[in-house]
Amino acid sequence: MDGLGSTEPENTPPEFTPTEIREMEKLFKEVGEKSLSQEFCQELATRFSCSTDRKGKSAMKWEKVQSWFQDKQKESAPKVTKPKGERIAGLSGLLFEAQSSKDGGWFDVASFLNFRVIRTGNLEVRVRFAGFGKEEDEWVNVETGVRERSIPLESSECDQVHVGDLVICFRESDDDAIYCDARIVKINRRPHDVSGCRCIFVVCYEDDEAEFGWIGCVAGQNDGFSSSLESKRRTERVGMIA
After folding, report:
1. Which residues contact 68 (CB under 8 A, 6 or more apart)?
2. Structurally, what CATH architecture does the domain formed by 151-233 represent?
């Protein structure tokens, strides 16, 4: 009845005090599953209800105490982990790219052949590059040289590119034609036409800090090199294979 006092509704379980939680934590470590028994929970609930810490609060119900211990039991149960073989199989749907130590370019990975841990403690994988034979296989550092395959950038998606973004861009010279990491340093947004994007992009390559520019997807020439925005947006590096 209104106005006769501030009692908690019966359907609202009383909260545990910090002292009660500390005691239950201690008891759980000491007795384990025995804390789930009705007799144990009834005795503990009675003790809590008579405590000065619970003055002005509703009496503690033993079911509430038992529920707390049940939740604690679930939290403490050992986690079931998948065997390593299953974790590796779960990556079968992912695509990766790896950086060649020969020219610094990033190439799509066809398969991972083997792995090893070197003296420094770093993990390396033996990579078969897509479109290349076994003579081009390389050992690659997993942490720094392997990542999920970059996402191709369409001409209509140029608004998603911003100054400071890291991208992977095609770079061609007399000796090489490879994809390299670069950073966008300048953008001049322009209206598109029937041929597609006409914005001007300037990138600075990560390896030698050389800058190159082009209009949309049309390669621009500079000192014998060309860059094309038929590029791929760079994704985060992958720390571990499995």
Report:
1. 16, 24
2. Roll (2.30)
